[in-house]
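Consortium newsletter contribution from the modelling node. Members have asked for a concrete example of what our holo predictions look like. Here is one, prepared for the zinc ion complex that several groups have been discussing at recent meetings.
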Amino acid sequence: MNMQKQLTILGIESSCDETAAAVYTTDQGLLSSVLHSQTALHMPYGGVVPEVASRSHIEKITPIVTEALSTANKKLEDIDVFAVTTKPGLAGSLLVGLCFAKAVAYTQQKPIVAVNHLEGHIASAHLENNIPFPYLCITASGGHTALYLVKNFGDFELIGQTVDDAAGEAFDKIASLIGLEYPGGPLIEKLAQKHNFEDVFHYPRMRKKGLDFSFSGLKTAVLYDLVKRGAYDLATKKILKPHDMLLKEQVASSLLVCVADIFEDRLAQALELYPQVTALSFVGGVACNNYLKERLALFAHKRKKLFFSPSKKYCTDNAAMIAFVGHYKAQKGLFAPLTLEIFE
Ligand code: KG4
Ligand code: ZN
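And here is the predicted structure:
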């Protein structure tokens, strides 16, 4: 018997450079998920510019929410709960989504649920799959890289995280070293594929006991390896052979193998500590990477664990995952007051 209340949730996500909205209902699941990506807007700057991001969110939030509602065939009055990302993220970006959510919740006299963006990423793997608990989740994107023991919906433990750069940030920074555009992750994958994911340069695996990650050392290792090969000038901070495609392919290919090894190493250590887990999941923007996905799927298969990773549209920032978390939190009555602030 289904003891759940029938709820229609509007999820709003604006923590970084995607303005997103989604509608999720108890009986039909996800009805719509729309977003506006600012990637092109930030490309000339080589990274996300906070002020540019907030201004774009202000412009896009109303049309994106309107589209999410109309695609779901819902009106604002049909929404029972407004779920919104409140942390972590860029202050100015988060404020746009939160202020919008507060305003519509107030006018409709309906409650708000505050959603942690990282909980959203964990939940993204549940949008298309039934995952048995407990399981291990690696979440990797441009802003965060962490390992969680997930015990139930909304019940998870952070067991490892990056002590410096995020994995996606490392891809973006190393891509920039070899003269690739932002965001570098997808380009690194394309180049690596051309070199068949071969480990040419054997970058250091930063192997250590413990479940934390460190990617800034990897960036430095790649930098000094390029200098040693006469391919990078430290004085001008420029790649010396900008048209040497083979070198770029070799860097990209070696890098991906290295990062896959690092992920596997942490997962292997975590499995020793938590042998009861039945499955592994891989989420966040970096999980768009098919090579990493396949390596981790094979790793799980060899250890007789199930493996889950969302489709690309749910790996990168989206509001479907926020609406999903909003739904299970609303079922538990975990509402926030209208005095809610960002980072709360
Ligand atoms: O989740 P996301 O869209 O935004 C953040 O919350 O950061 O993740 C973006 C990050 C970027 O660093 C980007 O380079 C990386 O995910 N990324 C990839 C791939 N596609 C996106 N990294 C490796 N391979 C990819 N195919
Ligand atoms: Zn994210």
